Amino acid sequence: MATALDWGIRGYNNYGAYLRKHYDGQRVFKVIVDGGFTCPNRDGSKGYGGCTYCNVDSFTPELSRKLPTIREQLVQGMERAEKNYAADKFIVYFQPNTNTYAPTHYLKMMYDEALSINSDKVVGFAVGTRPDCIDAEKVALLESYADKYDVDLEMGMESIYDETLTQINRGCSHGEFVEAVKLLENTKLNLCVHTIFGFPWETREMMHGYIHEINRFPQIKFVKFHHLHIVEGSIMGVKYKREPFKLFSLEEYTDLLCELIPMLRPDIVIQRLFGISDYDLLIAPNWGKNKSSIQTYIDKEIERRGIIQGSAYKA
User: Quick one: which of 30, 67, 184, 215 could link to 265 by a disulfide (CB 3.0–4.6 Å)?
Assistant: First the structure.
């Protein structure tokens, strides 16, 4: 007997369903572009080495890493999405590093170039950044594209605890995140917040606090949930090899998601439930499954347990 999941119905507000509904059933795919940016805690303005969990290559597609120009990355990325996934439309996604970390006039030049490529098929524009690299002028620049495109500003919250942010060499405080979110009150932009669950010194109750913090900002439209994974080329990777520490198993992480999803405000769209690295860069945890199999496992558990997003939400 077919289940709700078999019909594509999940107990949470999932991004795939949102895209299909928002774009009238068209197949819309993100195409990642590497603009060659860095981060303020890599280039010395705030620190060196970057966040301790981070190796940019671990979440940047190989195509983006190999091709030098924005045009080449987007042309080939779009062709691949059309060929392999029958994509109809595209979202241009500046993902690696901090994509507002440059003077506004320079950002405009890069953004304009990217959005001029295959422009009749581009419906959205997404930019990943840090809370300390966004200001009113850059918000205004991004909003200037919102009359033609759906514009998503993706911002890393990572943790709500300054002790954690210090330990991971984040280079900014949670207070700076809050100020950046307040800057986006009544914005035309779709704000997406990124979190990481599983820092070994944080308790389950502390992780619950992430959801309460997200819920209190009505301007947050999307979230991306990641579990902590350890990758080659990161500071945390070196430490883990010397002295391994506790990380989530797939079963444990699914248990946590089943606690968090009912607490999450029901209007928020979940773009991602977990993170995944290239297996040639992944140190731990290796769940022994590909991305699709992990997604299926989590979705089936959510359905089996009758989890409904927002069922425990209290305004």
Answer: 215
